[in-house]
Amino acid sequence: MARFEDARAGWEIFKGSEYAATLDEINDQLTRRDFSPVAPRTYSHYLKLKKKGYLQYIPINQLDIKTLKDPFWDSAVRNRYTPLPTEYLPVEISFRMRDRDIVLHGVSIETSASSATCRVSNPEAMALLQRKATQQHLRRERTHLKFSHTGTVFPAFLEGITIGLNEQFLVLKFGFVSLAAVDLMVDREPLSVDDMILRVTPTTENTAFSEIARKLYWLFQASEAVRLACEDMLTQMDEDRRYVVPSTKIESLQMRSPLQLAIVFAVPVVALLYMIVDEGMLPSTRRNKKAVEVIGSNRLQGWLDATHQAVKDATGIQSDQGFSDRTKEIFEEQLAPAILELFDDASGTIEVLPRQNGTAEDGDER
After folding, report:
1. Cβ–Cβ contacts within 10 Å for residue 334, how many?
2. pLDDT in tens, 260-275
3. Kind of pairing, strands 115-120 and 189-190?
4. Secondary structure of 161-210 in HEC code, one letter for each residue
5. pLDDT per residue over 101-113, tens digit each?
6. Residues 245, 149: Cα–Cα separation, whole Å
7. Complete DSSP assignment for 228-274
8. How confident is the model at residue 355 (pLDDT cuts 50, 70, 90)?
9. What is the C-alpha to C-alpha distance for residues 162 and 173, in angstroms, rounded to an integer?
10. pLDDT at 361
11. Coil, strand, or helix at residue 331?
């Protein structure tokens, strides 16, 4: 009797055939790879998935189980990152299975901060990866992807395998365990960076832990929204694929109350955050309005235009290409609510501290 793993493997075979394989052809390949054959009902389900435009396998009777999810890394957060082509850069896929350390060699096709898609063409590696036991292991246990041109390693889980044209190669999609630095996975020039020194002060010491954690969460969401928008703008204007928006890095962190940290952002991200701070206080009450309505469409448009110009200045690309609807949507749906939460003084205050002679001095409360 076919189980979930069998049905999922059959779907990947069907998808790899450009949705042309018959039920018998699918079952023949499944049997050769130690999977159980699937039923006609499952094949009908494949046809429905194709019709509805699904790329990943969804079970026939999928239950919506509500569980506590990682707010930084749930499926909604992961799906907002757009993969960048990587020009077939060498990658090592390493994992431990049955007390053996296994290293497979392939190339990366595209990467993002949440996932990487790789291609493997070595016959022995392909045979190993197509076995049911191997796929179950890689979906359950962590593997490590090493991008050879930088030597950087990221832990990941296997999400899917597709058979390439005429079975000459396999395409493997991996999901990273946490946010990965895309600038260390592509052969592109990162935009220049600059730092900001921030101080988070809770309203009372009794609420310090929750309020500091909340501010850091919304700082992450706000800065990532700007970074994502910059990535999208680059996609529109950088036809030669020369540049990449670097990941955000912590330069220093003083764990105390008030909390103080120095963060390194891409220059366009820093420029917009300073612009938002310099514009002054934001409304503290939403009154059931959308964030973009509270901030104001003109102000948000100003943020978009300033960021667009900052990306042009950072790359030297003076393109007439505007920004996409997706960029505007990122500002409206992700940046706007994050900024309102970040600067809401009801849950503590966040200050930007200027640098003077290489040290941080007390700044005005924002």
Report:
1. 20
2. 999 999 999 999 999 9
3. unpaired
4. EEECHHHCCEEEEEEECCCCCHHHCCCCEECCEEEEEEEEECCCHHHHHH
5. 999 999 999 999 9
6. 18
7. HHHHHHHHHH-TT--EEPPPPEEEEEE-SSSEEEEEEEEHHHHHHHH
8. low
9. 9
10. 45
11. helix
Contacts of 127 (CB under 8 A, 6+ apart): none
Pair 43, 21: CB distance under 8 Å: no
> DSSP character for 192?
P
For residue 78, give every residue at least 6 positions away whose Cβ sits within 8 Å of its Cβ, in sequence order, or none: 114, 115, 175
CB atoms inside a 10 Å sphere around CB 195: 16
Predicted pLDDT at 286 = 60
The Cα–Cα gap between 295 and 272 comes to 15
Instruction: Say if residues 189 and 242 touch (Cβ distance below 8 Å).
Output: yes
Q: Which residue has the tokens 């930088």?
A: 150
Which residue, chain included where needed, has tokens 């699937």?
A: 38
Question: DSSP state, 284?
Answer: S
Q: What is the pTM of this model?
A: 0.77
Report H helices in the chain: 4-16, 23-32, 40-52, 75-78, 123-129, 132-140, 208-237, 267-278, 291-295, 297-315, 325-330, 336-342
Partners of 346 in beta bridges: 348
Task: Please give the Cα distance from 284 to 272 (Å, whole number).
Answer: 20
In whole angstroms, what is the distance from residue 53 CA to residue 76 CA?
Answer: 18
The strand pairing partners of 147, in sequence order, are 91, 152
Burial 219-238 (b: 16+ CB within 10 A, else e): bbbbbbbbbbbbbbbbbbbb
For residue 333, pLDDT beyond 50: yes
Contacts of 158 (CB under 8 A, 6+ apart): 135, 138, 139, 143, 172, 173, 174
Q: What is the edge-to-edge ordering of all strands in the sheet holding 259-266?
A: 249-254, 259-266, 193-201, 349-353
Answer yes or no: are the C-beta atoms of 115 and 56 closer than 8 Å. no
**Rounded to an integer, what distance in angstroms lies between the CA atom of residue 215 and that of residue 208?**
11
For 355-366, letters b (16+ CB in 10 Å) and e give: eeeeebeeeeeb
DSSP label at 321? -
User: Of 113, 92, 112, nearest to 104 (Cα)?
Assistant: 92
